[in-house]
Backbone:
């Protein structure tokens, strides 16, 4: 039957990427329950659009839908994060004279790193998670996050810089307290 | 390659996104420049920190179940939509038009429409029956004290219903309840006659001074009157004589 066919091939092609979908939604919404709702909605949307999917990269295709669903969800829930537009002007690259950071970064435990990534603005979190956790190429990130390739690169650079500063800040307050 | 360009390209280099020529240039600069070399080490340290820490949020097991069942539902309804087909469309359009015309005729010819009181009486019977089915639904405020029941309605209604206890006449007040009838919030007062419950519904009248009307429906006696700007509907399984006696008490009390 047609219905069985569509459902079966959808489940084979898209369900294996459930972890990736949840991971992205969880990092964007920063909440387990919200991420579950977003992912469920994203899967329903994906199923409806499945006719337009022609067997390219199923994970990137799904993550694009998850990302859009997350943004719609945040809009609906008036997440304050959406009202903080990021300027994508390539800023001056700060001189990297932060030698001690190297040590701090090596010692950064999972908990500290997790917290630091959560503190990043939404747009930075997004590219960083796609790059570091999903290990996507710049091209794939550009497709998922709907960005020009050059912006992916500059955002990643700025996201990492910001992350380093947060980590150093955490380490300093730890020393002080 | 300058320091500034190098630091821009370091990320692409670390991410393996730089072409061969670019990579070679970056590598050469890193060998010559301590500052950029340290920036590079910072990036690789950050990358390995990501690799070592389990920042990945795997999906909880229940989510897959949830998604599978919602997909199944969606697939089913999609199939339903498809088999509905377009050939039924003209029939649907005609049916809708006929219904619309019937509605227009029904609305413009008042003679064809059941009188409002008729519909209201039906609504009141249902409400009364429902209030008896559930002990907890019978009263929102339980008190035989009219000075407790009356203030309870304050702020819940846009009018103040007259509340009186008729204990000495054998119709003690049991309590009050908020109801929604005739498209508005109304007060319901509950009185008792031995084992029989009487619901008295009160709201501001649209037309005043209609005479008392008695009807019987589904074994219940209904009495309807208006008095000093209020509409009253009393309903009970009590016999018509005693219900009338109750109505008289209520009317005199106002």
Residues:
């Amino acid at each position: 039957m047609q219905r069985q066919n569509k459902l079966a091939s959808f489940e084979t092609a898209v369900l294996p990427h459930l972890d990736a979908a949840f991971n992205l939604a969880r990092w964007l919404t920063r909440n387990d329950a919200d991420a579950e709702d977003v992912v469920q909605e994203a899967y329903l949307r994906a199923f409806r659009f499945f006719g337009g999917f022609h067997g390219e990269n199923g994970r990137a295709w799904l993550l694009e839908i998850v990302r859009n669903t997350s943004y719609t969800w945040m809009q609906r829930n008036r997440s304050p994060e959406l009202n903080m537009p990021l300027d994508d002007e390539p800023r001056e690259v700060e001189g990297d004279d932060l030698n001690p950071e190297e040590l701090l970064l090596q010692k950064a435990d999972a908990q500290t790193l997790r917290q630091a990534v959560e503190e990043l603005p939404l747009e930075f979190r997004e590219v960083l998670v796609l790059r570091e956790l999903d290990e996507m190429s710049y091209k794939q990130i550009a497709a998922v996050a709907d960005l020009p390739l050059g912006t992916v690169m500059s955002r990643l650079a700025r996201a990492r810089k910001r992350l380093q500063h947060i980590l150093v800040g955490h380490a300093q307050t730890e020393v002080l307290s | 390659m300058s320091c500034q360009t190098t630091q821009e390209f370091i990320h692409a280099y670390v991410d393996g996104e730089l072409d061969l020529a670019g990579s070679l240039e970056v590598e050469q600069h890193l060998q010559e420049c301590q500052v950029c070399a340290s920036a590079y080490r910072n990036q690789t340290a950050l990358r390995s920190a990501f690799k070592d820490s389990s920042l990945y949020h795997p999906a909880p097991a229940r989510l897959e179940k949830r998604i599978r069942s919602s997909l199944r539902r969606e697939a089913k309804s999609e199939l339903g939509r498809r088999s509905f087909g377009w050939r039924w469309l003209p029939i649907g359009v005609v049916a809708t038009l006929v219904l619309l015309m019937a509605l227009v005729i029904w609305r413009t010819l008042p003679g064809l429409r059941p009188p409002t009181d008729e519909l209201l009486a039906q609504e009141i019977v249902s409400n009364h029956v429902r209030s008896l089915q559930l002990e907890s639904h019978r009263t929102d405020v339980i008190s035989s004290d009219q000075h407790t029941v009356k203030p309870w309605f304050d702020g819940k209604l846009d009018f103040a219903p007259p509340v009186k206890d008729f204990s000495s006449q054998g119709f003690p007040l049991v309590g009050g309840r908020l109801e929604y009838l005739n498209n508005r919030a109304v007060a319901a007062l509950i009185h008792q006659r031995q084992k029989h419950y009487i619901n008295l519904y009160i709201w501001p009248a649209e037309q005043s001074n209609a005479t008392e009307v008695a009807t019987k429906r589904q074994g219940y006696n209904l009495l309807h009157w208006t008095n000093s700007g209020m509409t009253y509907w009393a309903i009970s399984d009590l016999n018509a004589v005693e219900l009338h006696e109750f109505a008289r008490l209520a009317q005199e009390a106002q």
Q: What stands out?
A: The CA atoms of residues 28 and 122 of chain A lie 7 Å apart. Confidence is low (pLDDT under 50) at residues 90-98 of chain A. Chain A is about 70% helix and 0% strand. The two ends of chain A are 66 Å apart (CA to CA).
